[in-house]
Amino acid sequence: MTGSDPSKDMIDYDPHHWWRHLLKLRGGILQEIVGRLGVFTIWTVAVTWFHLNVHKVDVPATGHTLAGTVLSLLLVFRTNSSYDRFWEGRKLWGGIVNETRNLLRAAALNIRSPDLLRRLAAWTAVYPYAVTRVLRRGGGLGPAAAVLPPAEIERVMASRNAGLAVALRMSAVVAEARQLGFISDIVQMEIDRNVHLLIDYQGGCERIVKTPLPFAYMLHLRRTLIVFILGLPFALVESFGWATVPVILLIAHTFLGIEEIGVEIEEPFGTEDNDLPLEGISESIANTLDELVPWRNQLIASPALSYAGAPTGKEPSSEA
Amino acid sequence: MTGSDPSKDMIDYDPHHWWRHLLKLRGGILQEIVGRLGVFTIWTVAVTWFHLNVHKVDVPATGHTLAGTVLSLLLVFRTNSSYDRFWEGRKLWGGIVNETRNLLRAAALNIRSPDLLRRLAAWTAVYPYAVTRVLRRGGGLGPAAAVLPPAEIERVMASRNAGLAVALRMSAVVAEARQLGFISDIVQMEIDRNVHLLIDYQGGCERIVKTPLPFAYMLHLRRTLIVFILGLPFALVESFGWATVPVILLIAHTFLGIEEIGVEIEEPFGTEDNDLPLEGISESIANTLDELVPWRNQLIASPALSYAGAPTGKEPSSEA
Amino acid sequence: MTGSDPSKDMIDYDPHHWWRHLLKLRGGILQEIVGRLGVFTIWTVAVTWFHLNVHKVDVPATGHTLAGTVLSLLLVFRTNSSYDRFWEGRKLWGGIVNETRNLLRAAALNIRSPDLLRRLAAWTAVYPYAVTRVLRRGGGLGPAAAVLPPAEIERVMASRNAGLAVALRMSAVVAEARQLGFISDIVQMEIDRNVHLLIDYQGGCERIVKTPLPFAYMLHLRRTLIVFILGLPFALVESFGWATVPVILLIAHTFLGIEEIGVEIEEPFGTEDNDLPLEGISESIANTLDELVPWRNQLIASPALSYAGAPTGKEPSSEA
Amino acid sequence: MTGSDPSKDMIDYDPHHWWRHLLKLRGGILQEIVGRLGVFTIWTVAVTWFHLNVHKVDVPATGHTLAGTVLSLLLVFRTNSSYDRFWEGRKLWGGIVNETRNLLRAAALNIRSPDLLRRLAAWTAVYPYAVTRVLRRGGGLGPAAAVLPPAEIERVMASRNAGLAVALRMSAVVAEARQLGFISDIVQMEIDRNVHLLIDYQGGCERIVKTPLPFAYMLHLRRTLIVFILGLPFALVESFGWATVPVILLIAHTFLGIEEIGVEIEEPFGTEDNDLPLEGISESIANTLDELVPWRNQLIASPALSYAGAPTGKEPSSEA
Amino acid sequence: MTGSDPSKDMIDYDPHHWWRHLLKLRGGILQEIVGRLGVFTIWTVAVTWFHLNVHKVDVPATGHTLAGTVLSLLLVFRTNSSYDRFWEGRKLWGGIVNETRNLLRAAALNIRSPDLLRRLAAWTAVYPYAVTRVLRRGGGLGPAAAVLPPAEIERVMASRNAGLAVALRMSAVVAEARQLGFISDIVQMEIDRNVHLLIDYQGGCERIVKTPLPFAYMLHLRRTLIVFILGLPFALVESFGWATVPVILLIAHTFLGIEEIGVEIEEPFGTEDNDLPLEGISESIANTLDELVPWRNQLIASPALSYAGAPTGKEPSSEA
């Protein structure tokens, strides 16, 4: 359903190329903060002009020195917290990659029913798209949805939480495998533990989406930043003269840029340039899973790894 | 019982809107620190007036420069620790969301008794309200309590720890399912592990509520902050003149604001503006669980996912 | 045996009350550092007097500015590490709270022998006191010890590690329950996993008690701090005159106080004001567990939650 | 196939030798940043010459002081984040070491088939090479591949994800052991849990490789760094004269070096000097595993540890 | 074999004694850095003499102020990372303490064979010594080795990884207990999970030993430190005169000391003063385990806790 549009992917770059990218606009934060920079520049020009032509309004820089340290710390800590959220989000999606692999690996080796396996593989391939749909409040269920019963897909699309609905269907197939005697309850529980983890990871992503930095934190940081920059011309104008304007522009660029990065990366599941390429990851999961199901048939046919039991039918297991 | 009052929810905001909110009072910390700012302003006015009109009392700023770095660090680290507690609290509630989902998912697929399932679903929907009642020392058990036996609800309300009492009732339903032969001990233990995790998460929340920052830490930070700001007029008055007053007001606003944020977010389970929306989360858990129980019936009826065993009665399982 | 003496508890306070506590001595660190402050004040008076009356001994403040940043960082990082240890210790005790609850919850629902359950509940209630005895190198086993065989209690008191000895007795009761056919090995292992976790948490606490900050770290920090403060009068005396004395007193108070907080909280299992209220937590565990055992009888009697099996005797379980 | 080329290994050094290595080029970052240093030196020379001979262009250093703190913080935090990634990568490989050991230990003691055990040992020894192949997008499967069926090896080499393909074959051997009645499903699940963990660790490594620092973060840091250094001559030239050139060279070396270290270590799976010695680790895993399989025979022959059952054939286990 | 030599233990100290230890040499880092301090002092004397007697060579301190912040941050972050490694190492050994306790506790209650139990206890007591042997590349297997078959001990001593070899023997005893019908596969797997954890912890320690801080990080930090201190006399000499020498000595002591602490504690498994007392921990593990085995006999004999089954022989368990 949804193809992977490369222009929507996270920017991939080689950090060893130092000079490249420096003038790039896309993915940077310049276009985001240019309005704010304009406001502060106009203010600086006005204060400087007033100071030089009308009346001296300079103060010493001691106040800025004292407040600058605490503001810098707060700013960088905030951006660091945002990066931790970004990285946690990435880890959660990494967990989704891992557990879909583990689930289908365990199933492929223990559930000896091609039909059940195919259904399980399809739902598993749909799962990351369903999580994306939850996190982005919209979106389709990916190409694997085409091989599943349309009525079921419709129910999933209509449910409150598509991820949860798909996970339930995955668990249902595993439960069915036990009902039909393909696996024991021990094996069912072990395979189902992967679904358990998938739901944990999905819940972690929802938590990040739903919980921004506490409002008071964001607000105080911004207010302090504004007061700090608005006051800066008074502290610099006497010694810098008209050089106050470019100097404050650069300082404002530094501070506002750090704040903006914090905003950009604290919720990494959107569709902006610095967000995670959820669709690319989902596609890559589906591709890896695709390899698994034919692989099983190969494996069973391969003499070096052949099973003792008959590969074609349901074996009588001791537990069932 | 308790409805979700939107005015009590955490402030949800879009951090990409930069200028919006800046003048908002609600959710910010200005109203909290305005008294302190007043005290320090009066002091600054007094010192400045005394210095300019009676007798010079200025000292160099070297002392403030040296102490400013360590104070800034301590302040920002403290606020960061509070944020870690906030985020840990959010994670614990995220865990409660996840495990209620996992518990009912596993139960829906393995316990083939509509009656037991309904009871388990109701207790599970009550659970987050019960935890909220423990954390806020009061509050009802939510709408799902209406479908449970009033005598049981009364016992829960009368118990020392409502969360624990509800968790026990959830475990009891699962144990009953094994007694009646619906599930094996393996499956019982696996489902019960979700209750285990719920109790761990609840315990984590209680720990955060019951353990503030060590008293000595808070006290030393505040004393140092007060001494630092009270001393500031002496260091600035000679070079700033009457500008000392607004400059110190802004510096005090910066420092006191950071400290106040630390206080606001270190215990995120209350009912203040920056606290977590526990009622909203509880409601949303209940809604998701509601979807699960009818879903099971659907699933069993759906031919593509139908079970081999009879969906209406108790099946003879190999373990029982 | 040991009652909860409120004067030994951690100070509980409401961080929203800003001005309160500021003049409190108890729980603060002033009485700890007052001797050091005295030494440095005498030194400062001596240097200032010598400088003003005998011979100029001032140096510029550049050295202190350069060393001040690194010293501040080291100091605050150290205090932060201590806070991490404090919080880890609190988490470990939180884990003890959780697992005693989980253990008795699982036992109450699965072990249908009032006698075994009562013994298990008593040992579980004794456990946190036993851990406290290990961490504080002394202390009794709490009120629940009175209902246990005195010979056993004596053996526990005589053992090298009372916590471990009690944990073993808890495991022994669970093992006995399986021997007697009340539970299967699956259920035994699952309940015993809680004991496993309890021993892990206890071991974590012992680790914190036995491992202070590396000696070289503590020593270098203190030496640097002393040199820094001893050198400070030389850097300030020329510009501050006699104001050097109060200024250095306040700076020393700031720095020494941060170091002292690090010392106070790095080992939070003692009986000082800022230590964790282990006895209060132990009592609260015992109270919660007390509710569990009668609760079980209630539960079994309650028709809405009644078991199919006979509640009065040992049921024949399918596993035994 | 791939031998361990010592020149490709991570540099091992004794940090206690302080003066050694200082002049080393290999492994340091000097050769990486020498171009950038050249550019900034030429610029500094040009500005200094212009200032001294043509027209004064100096500004005060206040701007650099204010921006310097925030830039330093951002830089060191970034390098710290990179170190966290480095250490996480090392932990993940440590996990691969541990779980290959655990897997073969558990298998050696429970699977009483020399043939299966030998196959499992070979696939396990191949696994770390397969992961290396995934992370470095190329490379062979190591010496143990020689004893495995060439057709299987070819299939692994042709698959999208060699690590996953090998893990599947490991699981397949364990599944086969249960099919043949050597182990129960409980034991199969327990051994397979090691494969589960291996796939988790591999996925963690892939995550680190595929996710650089967010583009905007890297870009803003570099832009700010460039502006900061380009502006530095103006701030220093009046007071430093020609000494501006070496001073700025050293400052630029400090700042650019920290940034470069962040780049070098954020993705530690390559073949550069500061990357992890994946081949050395893989070899060492294979050597340790080699010891395990003959060891089993020893163990079985040893009278003090002999088994009751016959060591030569398949024993009738109670579960099969 | 190896006794515990107290002079090799980590220094245990009471951090509440503030003035004590200050003049201690042992355990501090003074003897390590005294050579470096000498070099920098000679250099400072030379520069000062040259400046005062031959030709002025002073520069302003602005460069040092700008570079000082970033250097301080890098230095303290590095030392903090080393402390994290120290603490992680301590946690891993704490894990070894916990899991040896858990293993023998579970075994003592479930394996009813005095002979097997005695063997298991001996191997478990040997294990921490074996890990120490791996981490320190040498050392004996401790006193418990005396009661084990010398041929086995020899094989362990000859193996590549003594820890792994001992762990295998522990697992082998547990596997034998199942072979002989003392325990079911469920119980075997649960007990063996402790061995699994022991191998994980051991692997974690090996990882810390084998992976120093990335070479480039260490090198850049040292180079920057040297350049910073070598340049310092030029920045201070004009205003400090001969006082430059003691001031730089103290600053160098501060910075070099922090770096040296980072080196001392980043690999805490050696035999230096600030390393962990591995032998003391190993001895204490052995002592605790010693208490366990006789305890079991006591327990079985004690009427209040007696088992229903016959304590003397092998009981017929339902699983075997």
TrEMBL record, chains A, B, C, D, E:
UniProt subcellular location: Cell membrane
Coiled coil: none
Transmembrane regions listed in the UniProt entry: 33-52, 58-77, 225-252
Record key words, sorted: Cell membrane, Ion transport, Membrane, Transmembrane, Transmembrane helix, Transport
Topology with respect to the bilayer: Multi-pass membrane protein
InterPro entries in the record: YneE/VCCN1/2-like
Family according to the record: Belongs to the anion channel-forming bestrophin (TC 1.A.46) family.
Protein name, entry field: Bestrophin family ion channel
Species assigned in the record: Archangium lansingense
